[in-house]
Amino acid sequence: MNTITSRLAAAPISWGVCEVPDWGHQLEAGRVLSEMAALGISATEFGPAGFLPAQADQRAKVLSQHNLKAIGGFFPIILHNPAANPLTAVAAELDAYEAAGASIMVLAAETGVAGYDQRHELDAEGWELFGRNLDAVVKAAADRGIQAVVHPHVGTMIESTSDVDRVLSDTAANLCLDTGHLLIGGTDPAVLVRDYAARIGHTHLKDVRSSIARRVQNGELSYTDGVKSGMYVPLGQGDVGIAGIVRDLLAAGYRGWFTMEQDTILETEPAGEGPLRDVRQSVAFLRGLESDISG
After folding, report:
1. Counting Cβ atoms within 10 Å, is residue 120 exposed (0-12), middle (13-18) or buried (19+)?
2. Is the pLDDT confidence value at 47 over 60?
3. pLDDT per residue over 266-288, tens digit each?
4. Which of 45, 56, 135 is nearest to 97 (CA)?
5. CB 51 within 8 A of CB 292
6. What's the confidence (pLDDT) of residue 32?
């Protein structure tokens, strides 16, 4: 897996499939997976609970029918609740990962509140428990040959730059470099790559309109309304600097997946191409970038 193309993956959220209640119209897996395959994409993240079968063998079968490799995916989990053992919550998912041959578990530190429109902070005691639980989950996954990475994400317990720094300094966990959520949370993803490339275990490539992202940052818009307002755009058409980030990752020796993940909200079943059009443009951008680099 030395090229961008050989490490190119998709995610159902680019088709509007999301775990948040009332997020929008949810497309059937058959349409989403078929459209991924039609774009020449060979790998995908699992998507939210209910998108694919819960049974490990059935989940693997569905992906195989579309000639898609499972790389793992987004897994919301509460890590700061003293009454809940996260290892119990993660055990069944690790079974499914093993059955499907998936290798990356992208941990989103849930707050306990549905959706991503509220900011939450941990006190010192909460951080201590959070870090201890996070390291335990990372170890449990590693014992099964799976890398668990932390996903900085708007509206979760890991959102701001100080949150990200705390994970890097106080735990052994690697990060999912989500270029959109990092930027909205106040972290420059390009700087993070330059300073901590060795701690990046996975990527979610998002491009954003910075004018809308700033409105989400300052509380003028909720995250959900930012998505509805067109905050996310096809790769290469926003203000994140995706080309430079990918180049710097490759130069630093990054060997993980490049997952295209543009959060989308659908009102109804698309009559035409729908989200496929934007994902196609993102695929073309990354393939063009690969040609530029190799040329």
Report:
1. middle
2. yes
3. 999 998 999 999 999 999 999 99
4. 56
5. no
6. 97
Q: Give long-range contacts, CB 8 A cutoff, 24+ apart: 121-129.
A: 122/80, 122/157, 126/80, 127/166, 127/170, 129/79, 129/80, 129/82
Element (H, E) at 289: helix 276-294
Residue 119 has pLDDT above 70, yes or no: no
Q: With CA atoms as reference, report the closest residue to 6 among 193, 281, 250, 198.
A: 250
Q: How far apart are CA 25 and CA 270, in angstroms?
A: 10
**Helix and strand numbers, DSSP H then E, in the chain:** 11, 10
Given a contact cutoff of 8 angstroms between Cβ atoms, the answer to whether 226 and 212 are in contact is yes
CA distance linking residue 241 with residue 235, whole number of Å: 9
Laid out side by side, the sheet with 8-9 consists of 8-9, 258-260, 200-205, 174-178, 147-150, 104-109, 69-77, 43-45
> What gap in Å lies between CA 103 and CA 139, rounded to an integer?
14
Q: Which 3 state secondary structure label does DSSP give 76?
A: strand
Contact partners, residue 48, CB within 8 Å, separation at least 6: 12, 17, 18, 19, 74
Task: Give me the helices (H) in 41-160, please.
Answer: 56-65, 86-100, 124-142
In which band, very low, low, confident or very high, does the pLDDT at 180 lie, cut at 50, 70 and 90?
Answer: very high
Q: Are strands 147-150 and 104-109 parallel, antiparallel or unpaired?
A: parallel
The predicted pLDDT at position 116 comes to: 60
Neighbours of 37 (CB within 10 A): 16
Phi, psi of 252 (to 5 degrees): -85, 0
